[in-house]
């Protein structure tokens, strides 16, 4: 589908504005207008620009940066929906002018050396901003002042296309969302704004996209999580569809069966209607762009299931996805209820998901060297009544320190200390990227062999078995440890439990174990939600870390999670 051809037709937007079926999407844009387009936006001050390098703080600069960016994207939709309002066009052009004046389109967190006067860094925001500007120029065309269009062309050439053609960029060697977003946005920008150059970069961008897709195994799992999946894969699909149209079908990156498998990733993650598996830095309350999901549904109507409406969003910030919310809309589309029974074993990445009427459950193998990694091999999540009870906290606010070697795994959120994994001889899991545990699912038992996740020479074996019935999950850890050993089970929850001999009680959920050989205790810590500029916790959520200490560990220990 050529989305720009459809989106450039004023009659289409007149139909959208007057059709009740599109009203939720129009209302979402109006809400964004109220949020981002009223009043003035302060300038992006140098004092805030340098905060990331000086103190690790990203938020102060990005808050202003994103508000102006959001304003431009929102005003573009307002101009499409309400072409008669000249004030909207004036505000859009003023915002484009300010963005063209902006020192750099990349974020300080993505610039290696801010002391060098180089404002042509290609990162996620610089590349996607160029793509959005190219789209806006095509859709509004002669309604834009000639100087505005000229400046768009000049800045895209100077900041994006020329730097891309002059060298290879670090994200071209990655295998995560960066590769797809940056390469896809550059490719779309060239096809739209400098089509005569596309043949010069096509093979290179297609290689970047092949590298991105190679980060997925046959089970279609995005190890970065649902939010990063929708971001990276969204730009992959955008680029692939545009290239297919641009080359009249000569290049079609969407025809591989693997693409269909990746497209169905999200529907395998639901533990309940509002609870999604959130390993790594993935957020707990993930929502994905509705336009992205509409696009996938259009490509694979018999395979892709739309998630519940609460898990989809329309935000102008995701510009191509917001555009697709309108262009790819089909009145036959509708969000689908989550079935009470489901079971998925994603064997290539070692993820397991199970839903029953009583609980939602997931456990993981994986490894401790993934993109946005946490040291959490063998961990699990239990969902009850549409919320996590035994939890994965997800990530913490992004700071410079959060991604620094030697610092990252000191945080509760990233260390196995804050995950439902054993503590062996007083040690947590190590960050060993090249160590790959193995998993299996046979006769209703999901198993993770994860000795390699611990840098403990005296640990000779460690296998965790999860077995299930309708109202309970039993966790059996089988181990071999040389010499004097200590073995502690770790459970993490936002709910403070009541502890007695052989029992940890959460109300509707009870964890039972042999009180003759183990005892439970609880300590309180904090999950960071917001940080001070020095990286300390400004506002957090209490987290209860439960330890089940095995008194004389021999070769196994088990506990059962009972749901009342």
Q: What is the topological layout?
A:
Elements: H1 3-7, H2 10-18, H3 23-36, H4 46-49, H5 51-55, H6 59-81, H7 86-101, H8 124-140, H9 146-166, H10 177-193, H11 198-214, H12 226-246, H13 257-263, E1 270-272, E2 275-276, E3 288-289, H14 290-299, E4 312-313, H15 319-327, E5 342-346, E6 351-355, E7 360-364, E8 380-384, E9 387-390, E10 423-424, E11 438-442, E12 445-449, E13 459-469, E14 472-481, E15 487-493, E16 498-500, E17 503-505, E18 509-512, E19 518-531, E20 537-550, E21 556-563
Parallel strand pairs: 3-4
Antiparallel strand pairs: 1-2, 5-6, 6-7, 7-8, 8-9, 10-15, 11-12, 12-13, 13-14, 14-21, 15-20, 16-17, 17-18, 18-21, 19-20
Helix pairs in contact: 3-6, 6-7, 6-8, 7-9, 8-9, 8-10, 9-10, 10-11, 10-12, 14-15
Description:
- By secondary structure, the protein is α+β, with helices and mostly antiparallel strands.
- 35% of the residues lie in helices and 21% in strands.
- The protein is built from 15 helices and 21 strands.
- The strands form five sheets. It has an eight-stranded antiparallel β-sheet, with no helix packed on it.
- A hairpin with a 3-residue loop joins strand 17 (503-505) and strand 18.
- The relative contact order is 0.08.
